[in-house]
Amino acid sequence: MFASQVIGLELLETHYSWENKMQLSKDQGYVARASKVIALANNNGMKILLSTLGASWISCILPMPTGKRDVLLGSPNMAAQMDQGVYLGATVGRVANRIANASFTLDSQRFKVAANQDEHCLHGGSDNFSYRVWKEMQISPQEAIFSLVSPDGDQGFPGELEAEVRYVLTDDNKVIIYYRIQVSKLCPVNLTNHAYFNLAGEDAAKTALEHDLQLAATHYLPTDKSGIPTGEWRNVTETFFDFRHKKRIGYDFLQDDDQKAAGGYDHAMILDSSLTDGESTVASLFSPDGDVRMDIATTMPSIQIYTGNYLISVPGKSKYYTPFSGVAFETQFPPDAINHPEWGEQYSGISQPNKVYQQQTSYQFIF
């Protein structure tokens, strides 16, 4: 057994149980048995837990002076992770976010994909990547690699997709997620991680609205009530979506029609393109007490901010999660970009066949 697997078992016993505690169907039972948890640890005592179910990031434990603090919302066990529909820490795809009317035209051919949010496709369909058991390619004390093959026609998408997600935990308390994909046919691909953060601790009474945020975004995408972009890119200047200067998330909360339609923030923010090099900080989240800061860097052109508006009695590690228990930062191509060629090729997320594409996003914790 690898050293990090031993660490993982110890953490599971200490923090929460991922035993099978719910009644599962035959297929779910197979998935539960096939899934496993991996732990990574750095030399500072920071630890993260990952699951082969959905190549998910399920725990992020910081060694605070007051004790260990898990800043990631997550399920209490494997069965709950399979049953929940809010994508806690999961890798989602083939196409993250929404595709309007679950359809698109590519190379003069019309494709109909799986609709799982009314008539729209959300995060790749009803059997999206967050419900698949990924193959564990490699493991070391500070690195894990997961891979998945999605066949031609999967959820209606064209071409076979080979996907790889690599997690690295560095000694400067940075979690780096590398994405590597290749398709056999022209196809939109837009992978992201759907972790929800609460820097006060996933068990804290304080919510996402009590965190401060600074975000280098120039525009946001207004949406209809289904979360589908209208097509407009609205400059954040003189709007409540302007986080270019550090601001409390709850300060201007639900103060405009765009937020009211979504029940809070659930919008794509177009990042300053001069900063999307994977090294520059595009966003910083600050805990309510100011004792933890999380800096985000990415090569993706946009980031979906979601304040957990629809976390309705979701079973969590320490309690049931409710609206605003955590905030997600999903780095990605803009939602429904496949149906908006006018936005430009750099925002489309269209992958050419037999070409390798790589992206990365990192989350560094300063405490």
From TrEMBL:
Query: Which keywords label this protein?
Result: Carbohydrate metabolism, Isomerase
Enzyme Commission number(s) from the entry: 5.1.3.3
Q: SUPFAM superfamilies in the record, alphabetically?
A: Galactose mutarotase-like
User: Which PROSITE patterns does this chain map to?
Assistant: ALDOSE_1_EPIMERASE
Pathway noted in the entry: Carbohydrate metabolism; hexose metabolism
- What residue ranges carry the coiled-coil annotation? none
Q: Name one GO biological process term.
A: glucose metabolic process
Return the similarity comment.
Belongs to the aldose epimerase family.
Q: What is this protein called?
A: Aldose 1-epimerase
Originating species:
Providencia burhodogranariea DSM 19968
Q: What is the lineage of its organism?
A: Bacteria, Pseudomonadati, Pseudomonadota, Gammaproteobacteria, Enterobacterales
